Amino acid sequence: MPSSTRTVRTAPSPDAGERGTARGYRYAALGAALVVLVAALVFSGAAAARQVLDPGAVVRWGLPVAQATLNISVALVLGGLAFAVVILPHRRRPERARADGARGEAGAGKADDGGEHPAFTRALRVASVASLVWTASSVAVLVLTDSDLIGQPISGGSDFTKQLTFYMTQLDVGRAWLVTVIIAATVATLLFAVRSLTGLALTFVIAMIGLVPMALIGHSASSNDHEGAVNSLFLHILGAGLWVGGVGVLALLGGTLAGRLRSTGSGAGAELTEAVLRRFSALALFCFVTVVVSGIINASLRVTSWADLFGSAYGQLVIGKVVFAVILGVIGFMHRRWVIPQLSRGASAKRVLWQLVGVEAIVMGGVSGLAVALSRSAPPQPTSYAPDATPAFILSGYNLPPEPTTARWFTEWRFDWLWLAVAIFGATVYALGIVKVRRRGDAWSWPRSVAWFAGLVVLTYITSGPPAVYGRVLFSAHMVDHMMLTMVAPLFLVLGSPVTLALKALAPRQDGSRGLREWLLVFVHSKFSRLVTHPLFAAANFAGSIILFYYSDLFGYAMRDHVGHELMNLHFTLTGYIFVLTMIGSDPLPRRAPYPLRLLLLFATMAFHAFFGVAIMGSSILLEPTYFGNLGRPWGPSAIADQQTGGGVAWGIGEIPTVIVAIGVAVMWSKSDAKETKRRDRAADRDNDAELEAYNAMFTQLQQRDRTQGR
Q1: Mean pLDDT of 604-622
Q2: Which of 290, 338, 384, 395 could anchor a disulfide with 239, C-beta 3.0 to 4.6 Å?
Q3: How many CB atoms lie within 10 A of CB 688?
Q4: How far apart are CA 708 and CA 711, in angstroms?
């Protein structure tokens, strides 16, 4: 009997179609980056052959391609880690895992918690692969940059190897790229070895630190406002990396999220997809504002006139970036206002959403290519020291300010864009928290709000105002800067209770992901927090770090190097904040010191500050003679006389806030005793003085025992 065969044709699954669409968007984005890069290089002439010391076509074209690859890969690393750490759930819900197992999905239900969430796994896979590309492209940029600098093609000879070694170890640019390679390799290793959220968060921080060398060697880093240029460029790179990488990861997650959405209809999958998109939309809005503002600031350091903007290839490429930024802003607005609110209403909204994500990825690919071409193009303003640069400019990066007067302690400003961004971000987030708490019907103390905003104003004045300007040329002004960072600004910021406000304003997440609220609680209860907020450690760090800083090479490093200066500001601010928090703060801490111990620690730090100040006042040796002694300052006291004045400043400014904190501790102690007395009185009223009766009965028994033993 002849056998009959039947051919069964299966329709392609929706997931396969969406994976194909995502793959198409991916290729289109890479193609857009390459096309725009080549066009911009040809337009600006950055890839043209040089008349002298030409490294060859391989270097002239290979270096921009390697830089574009590096930028895209590091962006995907940041985006993948951002999604894994703060946007996506780490584990699947048990009920979700059981439902997947009932439908026969592979790997479901193997553990009680359902295992890793598929979107989380995919985001980490993207970041892991991108980290390998980041490492390889960093090595390529390192080698190609050296060849481009010396104007010789890449060769395998011993001379080129010696030159490359010299480049990596002796030149700032080479050292910066070497550090980038090391950080990229470290991040790649951690991404393949770490799966815990805390470990991934630390990896995320290391990856962001990897952007610092790129900011230090940018075009604008050699401008007249070196620190402002580096800070604005770092903010620009960080915002662009999170934004571009987030969009790229979101496009690659499209099939996974859409599949979860389809399999659950309007249930948990739809809620998760909408939550993920809203969370990334908030992050993208923050990145958009950061990229636009920092880009304008950074470009203004190189393009100083309208003629430079419209009449140079560099300025015209800047205009192109502005146009792309406007397009991306419009797409983001469409996401936030129109598409995401309609996700649960039908498939058309979902289709439009992923199409917009794909288009956004393509546009960002073009922006990435344009950014690389811009970094390879010659800016209108020179990028080297003037031949008549002053000693102060060579040492500090800035010319000498005018002689300080009372009025100039309010008018001489030089904005530190990094700390200004911190202040603006802190004020915005705090204000949003107040609005959210009050809309819910809860109250928030207005004195706390006033203290927080006052602390941010003081912090801005310290880091961008006259203390920062004159602190680079006068030791006494530096001491004003230091003591205000350590004692004045933290005093106001601690009274603002930002952690308490955040815990009240932020709702806990229910899908297994960690938001800001969850990360705050993890940090508060961590072993690291237990260590740094221990009263004894906080007091020792607060007092002892002064000696370690000023009587070591750290002081000179902080005065000469931009990274050292910013780390100094960060250290002093955090040290003061933690110490004041352990004394009078109301935010949650792992442990609280008894009030007598707090007063004892305060008096000990007061004595230590007095000892340090008196030692500086009586010293006749400059702490940093090669710096303060060579600034060529024609006004003011001598360097040693100014240093002795700084010792008096350290003594005076350090004591006044400490006394205020001590008064605060005494007031809190008194209030605590009053509350304890009221509590005992209420307890006595409830149980008819049972505690007092038991206490008296104990003494009666002791008296009877003594009488019996006496007889």
Answers
A1: 87
A2: 290
A3: 8
A4: 5
Distance CA 119, CA 91 (A): 10
Whether 69 is in a domain gets the answer: yes
Nearest to 190 by CA among 204, 170, 169, 171: 204
How far from 469 is each of 43, 386, 391, 396, CA to CA, in Å?
40, 21, 16, 10
Domain co-membership, 127 together with 191? yes
Task: Tell me how crowded residue 684 is: count the other CB atoms within 10 A of its CB.
Answer: 14
pLDDT at 260 exceeding the cut of 80:
no
**CA 158 to mean position of chain CA atoms:** 42
Rounded Cα–Cα distance for residues 427 and 616 (Å):
37
Structural domain harbouring 264: 14-96+107-376
Residues 85 and 233 in one domain: yes
Is residue 216 included in any domain, yes or no? Answer: yes
Residue 270: pLDDT band by 50, 70, 90 thresholds?
low
CA gap 374, 14 in Å, rounded = 41
User: What gap in Å lies between CA 333 and CA 328, rounded to an integer?
Assistant: 9
47: three-class secondary structure by DSSP? coil
Residue 573 lies in a domain: yes
Structure tokens at 313: 């290839």
Q: Quote the radius of gyration of the chain (alpha carbons, Å).
A: 31
Q: For residue 363, count other CB atoms closer than 10 A to its CB.
A: 19
348 CB contacts (<8 Å, ≥6 apart)? none
Domain count, the chain: 2
pLDDT at 12 over 70: no
Nearest to 60 by CA among 72, 48, 73, 42: 48
The verdict on residue 706 lying in a domain is no
Residues 341 and 480 grouped into a single domain: no
d(CA 319, CA 377): 14
pLDDT greater than 60 at residue 192: yes
